[in-house]
Amino acid sequence: MKKVVIFGYGLAGRVFHGSLIAAEPNLEVVGILTSNPERQAQAQTDFPNALITGDIQQLWSLNPDLAVVAGANVTHVPLATDALNRRINVVIDKPIAADAASVQLLAQAASNNRVHIFPFQNRRWDSDYLTLLKAVQGGTLGALHRFESRLQRFRLLSKGGWRDSSAPEDLGGVLYDFAPHVVDQAMDLMGPVTSVHAFARTVRETPVSDDDLVLILTHESGALSFLVGSLATAIPESRFELYGNRGAARIRATDTQEDRLKGGEIPGPDWGIEPESSVIELWVSNDSGDVNYHTLPSERGSWPNYYSEIAAALRGEGAPTVSIDQAIQTMRVMDAARESAASHAVVELNPPAGH
Predict the structure, then answer these.
(1) Range in 46-50, 170-174, 251-255 with the lowest mean pLDDT
(2) Where does the pLDDT of residue 289 fall: very low under 50, low under 70, confident under 90, or very high at 90 and above?
(3) H or E, element range at 155
(4) Least CB-packed of 76, 143, 218, 280 within 10 Å?
């Protein structure tokens, strides 16, 4: 059993990390860092045997095997650096840091101290993304030439807090919130990125950080990825559309694991099973050019696999799916996106950024 401490017990610390760790039998939460009285009470209810404290030194005294950095974005680098220098393995929620250079420094600290650093890219295990991957594996769509991915919500009013802050040091906005997911998936599916054209803007009346994001990635293959992250889109659109020279795929329904965790569920035997209405639509041509339409059921979502892989890695039993090197490359694309959004120009990546 590996001992885990969690830094931060807001949305990320409680809903995503706490619930998923609780479902992993080889990990035990022994301590949680939060100074908020309400969050302290909730943490003690969720993990009655854990030490709940606002004093980080008390958590270090527990000699944890793994520290999960899940607080405000500005805390990610200092807390992770402290843990790594104590030779403690680290999970870091997204965004890991402000830029690729900072992520590289963290990776070097992990290497110097002979410990692991794990990026939290849980959406590799979304049911919709796993369904798309399975559809591609057969090659029936032919050469892929365009990928469209959307994470869209409609929030007329700002919730406030650091996520909506326009102060650069707070790392708020959808570029830091949604882009790590959509960029990671696009690179995993479509390959290395050679250029980025980005639009990150604020469209709601309340003056907040960027709330509407469009990224156009050009891949080494010549394919394009059109990625959208928005808090200002009232009409639901497809989650994914994928086009090849022999067919196309579309997924309208989104993965439900986040909503289930927010509802207080702990992953169990029926976890990740989507409704029958959650399907992938496929249009595939035959050699004569006739297009046939059919649907396939959704694959099962499996966010718990993330921490199962972490537990295995801590035992020395294999490497996780998502590596820190991949996270560095993903952040290179995000760096280019910030530059492009500011300059209104296409930014080239040389060498290409690839997983």
Answers:
(1) 170-174
(2) confident
(3) none
(4) 143
